[in-house]
Amino acid sequence: MNKKNKFLLFFFTILLFFNILLFLTNIWIFDNFGNVKIQEILFTLLSPTSGTDSSVVYSYILRVLLIAVSFTVLSCFIVLYTRKKSKHFKYIKNISAIFVVVSLFLSCLYTNSRYDIYGYISQKSQTTSIYNKSKKTKKKVKKEEYQGDSTIVYQNPKEINISGSDTNNLIYIYLESIENTFLDTAHGGVKAINCMPELTELALNNTSFSNNELLGGAIPFTGTTWTIASMTSQFTGLPLKVEVANDMDQQNRFMPGAKTIGDILNENGYIQELMIGSQKEFAGTDKLFLQHGFDKISDINFLKEQYLIKNDDLNQWGLKDYKLFELAKNELTELSQKGKFNFTMATIDCHMPKGFLCKYCPNTYENRYENIYACQSKLINSFIDWCKSQSWYENTTIVLVGDHPTMAQQYVNDVPSDYQRTTYNCFINSKVTTDQIKNRQFTHMDMYPTTLAAMGFNIEGNKLALGTNLFSELPTIIEKYGQDYINEEVQKSSEYLDKNIYQFN
After folding, report:
1. Which residue intervals of 116-166 are DSSP H helices?
2. How many CA atoms lie within 13 A of 149 on its CB side?
3. In angstroms, rounded to a whole number, what is the distance separating the alpha carbons of residues 348 and 315?
4. What is the pLDDT of residue 223?
5. Is the same domain home to 98 and 185?
6. 404, 399, 390, 457: which is closest to 429 by C-alpha?
7. Global confidence as pTM
8. Segment 418-456, tens digit of pLDDT
9. Distance between CA 29 and CA 35 in Å, rounded?
10. Beta partners for residue 172, in sequence order
């Protein structure tokens, strides 16, 4: 074989490998994550891996990488064998080359159409003005009567008076992958049987904001649809730039210019603790909270040092939720004796790709995930019941929020294409009320001012960052300007964010 043919064979092999790899990757992504956005894919591929569940990596290696290599090697052997044995090799070679090139081109077109990669790159080259302050003159009204300006998209929290003389403690729980889809149809889900009866009752008996007439919630939005992004958006009122999330192992600071819930509560003398069953370093979680007002993070490593943890209490990500809630009672009891507190925690048992069963999970529902959901519902309700028996309960606001719709695609294949999947939310012991809880269009960014309002804080203008206080009469930014418009704008570059919020070097 001369040099020209060797080069052509090498070039053919590379094209064939990438063609098979791209085809299998698309299948693998859909099977594991469903119709995710390009930001979520980039985060999963590029973010720091400390504390991750290695089963996802092994799955990709076995189902994509090894198969792509095997098919490529086999195809090369067939080409070499055909070259020696067939007198029609020249025609077979040309047809094969055309097939590989055309199929690779079509695969690239399909991948771009599915994930809008070109649109993502294009929007990154554009700039947005939504973070610029409105120059509209504010009407002169008495300070106590001012409810806010709905035309303002972004409101810098550092410029807003946030006050409160008799505010509540806070327990804030990020519920991994808890979405309303798994409710029965009578309550707004798609299931014949409700596998979350306790969470349903909590939502019905307290304040739960909905995008429809039944039980609904926050609409998935760019930069809020994976765990650290959801935490960030609820904490700061801003979506998370995926390139920042991917680089947190290199950055010393996490959005240093942002004023967060943690910063505000720290200014008001709250003692704050985050409790998670995974490693605090994953995706910069430790930096997000410790650099914004939190005093302590109790993660899997800390909990192993402080408590007796058995192997049965662990899963691939860290501590199982039943053990996390058990230890949370100890941590809360200690924290509550120090003064006003904010106890924030995050569950993990519903994490993709298939969730984690524990010894308390029932076996009464159609699939594994529904049984894990049922277990979560009971665990959370039991924890709330314990809180109700504590002396500090009456002065404590409890917020339950699903962090994002599940990425465990195998359990949502039966969801109708026209059904709007939303995350669960419930505000318990809120110091304010509202009748405007139905047919609301809102995102996780609105949790920021809404949580503070539920605790009893007064927020001048009822807007913080891109979030709107849902207890107020102001429309959210997607109610005012439409989800498509705001979604496009937040994906664009912003000199304001880079300079003032992220403070890039």
Report:
1. 117-124
2. 15
3. 9
4. 87
5. no
6. 399
7. 0.86
8. 999 999 999 999 999 999 999 999 999 999 999 999 999
9. 8
10. 344, 399
Quickly tell me which residue has 């498509």 as its tokens. Answer: 484
Question: In terms of residue numbers, what domain contains 237?
Answer: 151-501
Q: Are residues 92 and 167 in the same domain?
A: no
The mean per-residue pLDDT over the stretch 300-318 comes to: 93
| Residue 301: CATH number of its domain | 3.40.720.10
By CB atoms closer than 10 A (0-12, 13-18, 19+), residue 407 is: buried
Residue 129 domain-assigned (yes or no): no
Bond preceding residue 475 cis, omega within 30 of 0:
no
- Co-location of 63 and 169 in the same domain: no
Are the beta carbons of 146 and 161 closer than 8 angstroms? no
337-372 burial: b if 16+ Cβ within 10 Å, else e? eeebbbbbbbbbbbbbbbbbbbeebeeebeebbbbb
pLDDT in tens, 462-505: 999 999 999 999 999 999 999 999 999 998 999 999 999 998 76
> What pLDDT does residue 74 have?
86
> Which of 109, 124, 139 represents a domain boundary (last residue)?
124
Q: Which of 17-31, 87-101, 252-266 has the highest mean pLDDT?
A: 252-266
DSSP 332-384: HHHHHTTSSEEEEEE--TT-TTT----TT--S-SSSHHHHHHHHHHHHHHHHH
Q: What is the CB-side half-sphere exposure of residue 200 using CA atoms within 13 A?
A: 18
- Alpha-carbon distance of 390 to 123, in angstroms, equals 50
Q: How many CB atoms sit inside 10 A of residue 145's CB?
A: 6
Crossing angle between the packed helical segments 66-85 and 89-115, to the nearest 10 degrees: 160
Residues 75, 182, single domain; the answer is no
Q: What single letter denotes the amino acid at residue 323?
A: K
Could you tell me the two tokens for 505? 């070097």
Task: Report the pLDDT value the prediction gives residue 258, as an integer from 0 to 100.
Answer: 97
Question: Which token pair is 406?
Answer: 């599940």
With respect to residue 192, please indicate whether it lies within any of the assigned structural domains.
yes
